[in-house]
Amino acid sequence: MTVADLHPWKEPPATVVFVGGGPRTAGLLERFAASSGEFLGGRRVEIHVVDPFPAGGGRIWRREQSRLLWMNSMTSDVTIFTDESVECEGPIVPGPDLAAWVAGEGAVILEKAGLEPPGPMDFPPRQVQAEYLAWVWERVVRDLPATVITHPERAVELTADQRVILGSGQEIAADAVVLALGYLDRLPTASESAWAAQAADAGLTYIPPGYTADVDLDGLWPQAPVIVRGFGQAFVDLMVLLTEGRGGWYDECNGLLSYHPSGDEPILYVGSRRGVPYHSKLGYTVPGTKPVPTRYLTKEALGEGVLDFDRDVAPLIEKELAYAHYQQLFTAHAERTRWPWERFAEALDAWSPRSGAGSDAEFEAAVGAAVPAANDRFVRHEVDRPLAGRFFADREGFERFLTELIENDLLRRADSAYSADLAVFNALLSIYSVLSRAITDGQLSDEDRVRRVESEWHSFFSFVASGPPPRRLEELLALHRAGIVRFAGPDLDVAIDNDQFVATSPAVAGEVRARAFVEARLPRPDVLATADPLLRGLLDSGALAADELFAADGTSLGGGQLKADSQCRAIRADGSTQETLFLLGPSVSGSAGSSGFSRPHFNGPGFRQNDAVARDLLKLLAPTVRKEERHAS
Fold this sequence. Notes:
The chain is an alpha/beta fold. It folds into 3 domains: 282 residues, 3-Layer(bba) Sandwich (FAD/NAD(P)-binding domain); 122 residues, FAD/NAD(P)-binding domain, CATH 3.50.50.60; 167 residues, no CATH class. A hairpin with a 2-residue loop joins strand 14 and strand 15. Helix 2 packs across helix 18 and helix 9 packs antiparallel against helix 10. The relative contact order is 0.15. The N terminus is likely disordered.
């Protein structure tokens, strides 16, 4: 007599396939394990994870990358595990954040890997995070009541009867599939293809937007000028790989960092739309300060229906940021103000940015009277474009000005006397949450979402809140003093002339000529241009839907995100929902927590979404008897 004879209701093992094995999948499986006892009733589950890169870290957080590349978060600001702050239906299963792991079990692991354990306030190498995520993966797999099989290859097709076909030809029949693909490679744009063709014809080196750790930099020759457009994280990685990565080194004397070239570095002329690097990460904490609910940009203020971003949303953002800045200034540094906070708050409440004659002037007068020091005032457009309206008759004068700007930024971002900057940072996080909800609720047009939120607003957010560790800007200044990095200016325009790239800025006299040009930025997400064969096949067949976006004047805005419902279930081109296909990640509409790791004690939206999806998966896989029991109750 078999087990099946004793329990005739017993069902065969359930099979789930995860395409993508990075941190999102690890976090989702942790939530799956947490709630499995509530749903599975002993049913066996087989989980397949398909990813050519190692499970846990995936592509971005793989071990096999330069030790010189750092995370953009402090050790103490990263966790994979839920804590008491997370609001979810599943049970909380605490685990160590990155800082606790480094001080505990991770210490031996890092020692074996030859990695220095970072401190809680350090920005650790990405390889440290890779080791943490590998350890997390092992713990998650150990806790799962399932058999886990990893496939280090790509999934190339998902059939209508839900068979996942791998690059090797293997087929996996699945009861449910989760696509957690992370950041997608995309086909070149028409502009990028034209640049590549022109550069090839002229014998020039052109490097299009891409993930710097994966880019071939051999075409950037020692001591030759290189034009670089982009001053964010992609540039910082490029700078590191082309300097220390080519054998140079730093030392410090009397507090001044010096760079010693190896001779293999190119000369980088860097510019961007702003012409300045992203603001340094804040180098201090203030106890008790954290993101708080928005005051002006609220769901109630936005109301129902489709909004006009410039008219309905942007003024509320202006007030939100100003309120955060000035409330912290007036309450924590009252000695630098002339009015009581209550009086100033009334002026701020009455302010209607750009709403009518005199409203801005009245608020500006209140700021002038109440806040005597210019560097204690907050004017968003001046923060956003610090070089606006300036012209420099020579490059040397511009470089002196920009050097001083960067030095002052480093001093300010390390000084808690300017904790109003921290308040603005926290307000940006709260604003982002409201904007994400407005997008998910369909309150913004495609044009506003792409141009205003995903381009302009995200650019401002990254510039202020997602800049490099302070040490990286110190290195930038040292490289400038060594003649390795030069500054090319804002609104940088690049063209090809006489078999050379030529870069000009309307704010700086002169031009820069070079035989190499790097677009130091990530490619704009566009699922309709994805290079992934699995997604292309699903989109072509109508099994997945993604809008092609157009502006009001008919201009194409490219492809949107993959469509998913509020439960992260895939939506087909005909509008129907696929009950057993789930979509997660930055290329999916409404996917929470896709922009980075959650901070401890922060009730991260990614945790909440992972928990909900894990429980929906478990409900699908639950034995029929258990489903009937739950329905009856």
